[in-house]
Design goal:
The protein is an alpha/beta fold. 39% of the residues lie in helices and 15% in strands. It has 15 helices and 12 strands. A 7-stranded mixed beta sheet has the order 1-7-6-5-4-2-3, with helices on both faces. β5, α8 and β6 form a beta-alpha-beta unit. The radius of gyration is 21 Å and the shape is globular. It starts with a helix and ends with a helix.
Length: 381
Amino acid sequence: MRMQTMLAHFGEETFHGAVVPPLFLNSLFTANSYDEMKSEAPYRYSRMGNPTTDMLEKKLAALDNGEAAKVFASGMAAVSTALLHFLKQGDHVICSYPIYGGTYAMLSGWMARYGVTCDFVDFRDLDNIRDAVKPNTRMLYTEGYSTMFMDVFDLRGAIAIAREHGLVSVIDNTCATPATLKPLDWGFDVVVHSLSKYLSGHSDLTGGVVVSSQDTIRKLTAMEIGVIGGALPPFDAWLATRGLRTFGLRMKQHGESAMRVAALLDGHPQVERVNYPLLPGHPQHELAVSQMSGPTGLLSFELRGGEPAVRKFVDSLHWFKIGVSWGGFESLVYATAIGWQQDAVVGTEYESRIDKLVRLSVGLEDTEDLLEDVEQALAQL
């Protein structure tokens, strides 16, 4: 099956001809006998497994070309569970930057309380990764398409370094999505996503997922899900499955509209730089198109005039609402000058770009309306 057909049908059971499978809201499952309960029954308690969440996990694993998946109550629950599953006291992590803010907080501070250290390096230069490897390095962690500055890097090169040193490779693919990038095909061990964004697409739930091998998901479920308990509730899983049915179609529209918005911004006298590697002429364009099968709806750009210009532009938009997330049906705008607390960028080129950077999540409104909105906001400058 191709992607959109798989999302419409794979993993779903039919119940009396129902087009939409039912929602199993129950918290527990009873047994018919002592021996049945004592055995490995398929369902006992919804924290550990539920028919509704199972259906979602089958679709998500297939979407990423993975063996298995486990869903969580938030994207950060998925990220933190993956970190806690593989890391122990004394381990070291090499992480790309800029990285998602919650992940940065987890690796820069929270994990240090338990003896796990992390070096944040620029993955655009593979020598930075090689130089960061230590005898106790356990994990390589990155994003396929960075959250704010929209950078890409050589996936093959990074994985080769991870394999050379026996590192677990984990990638957050929320920004690029499986519609444009499938990291497991490139050799990554683990993929994490926020379900709250493109995968569900309707801004009505929070959730996360870890996709990996059957063995990893089995162990992760038995331990971290069992004792930490960050499981996705059945109703949220039902909503996410509903959203997935239109994922492929939505991503096409997001990408097409974002490409046109990027083209409008490119070369505009008020715009210093457009961060969208799928755009022809971008310094990373050749690498991006060699790894990503199409555009995503997330881009950023940098305005001349710094924070005053950013403030004026953001406040002048009509259809792009100010919000911290992305990937929903609605268009959003966010600026790093509003809030940015990643000290790893101090002393790098990124530090000088923070006050002038604007991120757009291009939604599903009519493209012409979005273009007119961006154009009139630029005219205010």
